[in-house]
Automatic annotation (TrEMBL):
This is Peptidase A1 domain-containing protein. It comes from the Eukaryota. Gene3D superfamilies: Acid Proteases. The chain crosses the membrane at residues 21-44, 463-482. GO terms for cellular component: fungal-type vacuole. Residues 76-418 form the Peptidase A1 domain. It comes from Lachnellula cervina. CDD domains: pepsin_like (cd05471). The keyword Membrane applies. InterPro entries: Aspartic_peptidase_A1, Pepsin-like_dom, PEPTIDASE_A1, Peptidase_aspartic_dom_sf.
Length: 484
C-alpha cells in the first residue's frame, strides 16, 4: 500500500507573519455556513437552509430530522459539497487530517451492509458521477497509524475535486482542485473535513499538495492560519450542535483563561498537552501519573494508560469487553451511573512541570454514549474510554471537545483550550484572528492577534444558531513550511 509522506519533526516552532491580501472572509460553520468580510462590522448570514436558529437545530432537507450521526456518538456533522455536479455529503471534523475525506459509495456496498448505510454514513460520494474528479489512486490515510494495525492499514481513493462548504444554495465558498479521499473503510464511519494546514505529499516532499485551509487562505477567503471548534453536546439544553469557525472565534462560547499552549516539536502531534490529572467529583484520582496526550478529533474516544483505565473501572464500575475492546454498559449499570452522576475534571497544562493549568469539567452525560454497527451487532450503550498500548496512543478524542473549546493559531504556533459555557439564546460575539503585525481594517476593534486564552476574562455563553469556534487559515508559504 502506498503511503502519503509525513512531514519530519521540527525542532523549533514555525512562526511567521503572513500578509493579508484582498477581501478577507471568515467562515463560521454550525451546520449552516456564515460568510463575512473582515472589513464589515457584522457578519453576513448566507442561506440558512432549514435552520431554526432559535432552537439551534439544523434539519435534513429530505427527512426533517436533526443531523446527528455516527456509530459511536451521536455526533454533530457538517454539510459540504463535493464534485461536479455538486453532491451533498456530511462530515465530521479532523484536527489531524490535511485533506477532505468523504465516504465513497463503495463504502456502502457488499455483504452484511445495513440498508440505512447511506444515511448513517453521511450520504456517500459517487466518484464516477463527478466530471471534475482527477484520480490519483489508492493511498494510505496515514494519520492514525499509531493507534493500531487497523488504522495503519486504512487507505482511501485519492484525487482532486471541487469542494464547497454548506449545502447547495447556501452560498458557502467553493474551491477547485482540492485533495479528496474516498473512503471504504469502516474505521472512519463518516468522512472528515481536515483542518490541519500541512500539505499532502504523495510521492515525495518535492510536490506538496495544498490543504483545503491553505487554499481558503490563498484565495482570500479567510484572514489567518487559525480555526476554532467545539463538538456540540446532545445532552445540553436543546441538544447543542457542533461549531466550527474559520478565521476567528466566538467569544460567547467559552470561559477565558491565562494558558497558551505552544505547538509540540513533532508537527504531526502539534496539539499535544500535558494532562496533569483527572479528578472525580468525589475527589477520586483517575490518572495516577501525568501524561502528554494529543488532542485529535478524528477519533471519538479518550485513550489513556491501562492504570488510568483501571481507575475508571473502579470509579464507574466499568467492565472491559475483550471482543469489542469497548467498555459496554448494560441497562442496570446505566441507571446506576445516571443516578450517581459523577463529574470529571481534566487538568491541562502546557507541560507537566507547569503549575498553571486549565480545568475542563465533564458531567457523566458526556460519556453516556451509544455504539452501533459495525463495532457491535446491535446498538448498545458504552463509555468512550480506550486502553492505550503505549504513550504514542494517548489521545483526547472528540468526546473531549463536547465540553472544551479549541482555538488553534498556526500563524503563531500556539493554541488554547477553554471550558465551554452554556447559556440559552446568549448573543454570539465573533472575533477575527488576524495575521501577525496586521490590524483589523474594519476599524471596529474586533480583530485580534492573540489566541483568546491569553486574556483572563469570563465569556458569555451561547447555544444560538451559529456556535463559533476558531479561525482557520493558512498562508501558502506557511503550508509549505509545515509540510516539508
Amino acid at each position: 500500500m502506498r503511503q502519503i509522506w509525513t512531514a519530519p519533526k521540527r525542532t523549533t516552532p514555525d512562526v511567521g507573519p503572513h500578509a493579508a491580501a484582498g477581501l478577507w472572509l471568515w467562515i463560521t460553520i454550525c451546520l449552516v455556513i456564515r460568510v463575512a468580510a473582515a472589513t464589515a462590522p457584522t457578519a453576513l448570514d448566507v442561506a440558512p437552509i432549514l435552520s431554526d436558529r432559535d432552537m439551534n437545530t439544523f434539519t435534513r432537507r429530505e427527512t426533517d430530522r436533526l443531523i446527528r450521526e455516527g456509530n459511536d456518538g451521536p455526533w454533530s456533522t457538517f454539510p459540504i459539497l463535493v464534485g461536479s455536479p455538486a453532491q451533498d455529503t456530511r462530515v465530521l471534523i479532523s484536527t489531524a487530517s490535511t485533506s477532505t475525506w468523504v465516504v465513497a459509495v463503495q463504502g456502502c456496498q457488499g455483504s452484511n451492509i445495513p440498508s440505512n448505510c447511506s444515511t448513517t454514513r453521511g450520504s456517500p460520494f459517487n466518484i464516477s458521477s463527478s466530471t471534475s474528479w482527477q484520480d490519483n489512486g489508492p493511498w494510505g490515510l496515514n494519520i492514525e497509524s499509531n493507534l493500531g494495525t487497523n488504522y495503519a492499514a486504512d487507505e482511501g481513493q485519492f484525487g482532486w475535486d471541487t469542494v464547497g462548504l454548506g449545502f447547495q444554495g447556501s452560498g458557502g465558498p467553493t474551491l477547485n482542485h482540492t485533495v479528496v479521499a474516498g473512503l471504504q473503510t469502516m474505521d472512519y464511519y463518516i468522512g472528515m473535513l481536515g483542518l490541519n494546514p500541512r500539505p499532502t505529499n504523495f510521492s515525495d516532499f518535492n510536490h506538496p499538495q495544498p490543504s483545503y485551509l491553505s487554499l481558503l487562505y490563498e484565495n482570500s477567503k479567510i484572514p489567518s492560519l487559525s480555526y476554532s471548534y467545539t463538538a456540540g453536546a446532545q445532552y445540553r439544553l436543546n441538544k447543542v450542535l457542533g461549531s466550527l469557525t474559520l478565521g476567528g472565534y466566538d467569544d460567547s462560547l467559552f470561559v477565558h483563561n491565562s494558558v497558551t499552549f505552544p505547538f509540540y516539536y513533532d508537527q504531526s502531534r502539534d496539539l499535544t498537552v500535558g494532562l496533569k490529572s483527572i479528578t472525580g467529583s468525589g475527589g477520586e484520582s483517575l490518572l495516577p501519573t501525568g501524561i502528554l496526550t494529543l488532542i485529535d478529533t478524528t477519533v471519538s474516544q479518550i485513550w489513556l494508560p491501562l492504570e488510568a483505565c483501571t481507575a475508571f473501572e473502579s470509579t464507574f464500575g466499568l467492565v472491559y469487553d475483550e471482543t469489542t475492546e469497548l467498555y459496554l454498559v448494560n441497562d442496570t449499570q446505566h441507571a446506576t451511573l445516571q443516578k450517581q452522576n459523577t463529574s470529571l475534571t481534566f487538568t491541562l497544562a502546557a507541560t507537566l512541570a507547569d503549575t498553571v493549568g486549565v480545568n475542563i469539567t465533564f458531567p457523566y452525560a458526556a460519556f453516556d454514549l451509544e455504539v452501533s454497527y459495525p463495532l457491535v451487532n446491535t446498538t448498545q450503550r458504552y463509555f468512550p474510554l480506550h486502553r492505550a498500548d503505549n504513550d504514542t496512543q494517548y489521545t483526547l478524542g472528540r468526546v473531549f471537545l463536547q465540553e472544551a473549546y479549541l482555538t488553534v493559531d498556526y500563524g503563531r504556533s500556539n493554541f488554547s483550550v477553554s471550558q465551554r459555557t452554556w447559556e440559552l439564546n446568549a448573543p454570539k460575539h465573533t472575533v477575527n484572528i488576524l495575521p501577525q503585525n496586521a490590524t483589523d481594517s474594519s476599524g471596529t476593534g474586533n480583530g485580534t492577534g492573540t489566541v483568546p486564552a491569553v486574556t483572563a476574562k469570563a465569556a458569555k455563553t451561547s447555544i444560538g444558531a451559529i456556535v463559533g469556534g476558531i479561525i482557520a487559515g493558512i498562508a501558502a508559504i506557511a503550508a509549505l513550511a509545515f509540510g516539508i
